[in-house]
Amino acid sequence: MIFARPKAPSAGQKRGVRSIITSNKKKTTYQPRTYRHWVEGKDLVAFNVVIKETDLYIRAGIDLTRQASRIVHKYRYQLEGYISGHPDFARSLKPLAVRRFAPDIVKEMAQAGQAAGVGPMAAVAGAIAERVGRDLLTYSREIIVENGGDIFLQVQSRRTIGIYAGDSPLTGKIGLEIEPEATPLGICTSSGTVGHSLSFGKADAVVAVAPSTALADAAATAIGNRVGGVGDIDKATEFGRGIDGLTGLVIIVGDKVGAWGDVRLCETGT
Q: Can you say how many angstroms the Cα of residue 245 is from the centroid of all Cα atoms in its chain?
């Protein structure tokens, strides 16, 4: 079982080229990523790749640390290069058009931001997770990449993605069952109560599911920004339903849950 620990919703604004995958900071107590080790099943090899702000937890058929590190460098180089010449890409809180010659990962982020109505950097963690994961499929039939609460996965057997929702009593109690035929898939989690990023919402967890991990990332941010409390679950769900390409979502506020789309909730038994 893989637990998805949320990041706080970001409007997509970043501070310069160095903050390539991190949202605006707010003062908070450091929270170690212990959720990464709430994993059932020893059939995959787990390893970490940390390059600057990029901190990936990866599971694959074999240890692919060297290959993953090379891939992360490749995509960071593309993003940093584009941002150095187009700083608005890193700062925009709203959807932003990009140059025709922009790298594909930049175009993908811009498209995700456009679909969800947020800045392109709201999709950066999901975009990196998917790009790294897809490239690693050359070496392993199964790949799970987690990047700050955003997951790309291609699996050969049923997997359970547990949901970490901070102080909610539902943390570790419910999850999503993912069938192999539904993958490759992006599952991204955003929160207004967990993490250190700029937050416009108060949901304990918003989980967005889509074939595009970049889109799921941007959608989780946009939906989370619309949840100020339990009373906003329905309207935020309705907003999420209108995001083209999104296939499912889950919203948790305290002990209340809202869900829509192609998601199969299950008890995780933790």
A: 15
User: Is the bond preceding residue 184 a cis peptide, omega within 30 degrees?
Assistant: yes
Give the chain's count of helices (H) and strands (E): 6, 12
Q: What is the Cα–Cα distance from 220 to 40, expressed in whole angstroms?
A: 25
Q: What angle do CA 237, 207, 60 make, to 5 degrees?
A: 155
**Cα angle vertex 102, ends 241, 14, to 5°?**
65
- Nearest Cα to 165, choosing from 146, 185, 187, 189? 189
pTM attached to this predicted model: 0.88
pLDDT, tens digit, for every residue of 70-103? 999 999 999 999 999 999 999 999 999 999 999 9
Domains belonging to the chain, first-starting first, are 2-267 (3.10.520.10)
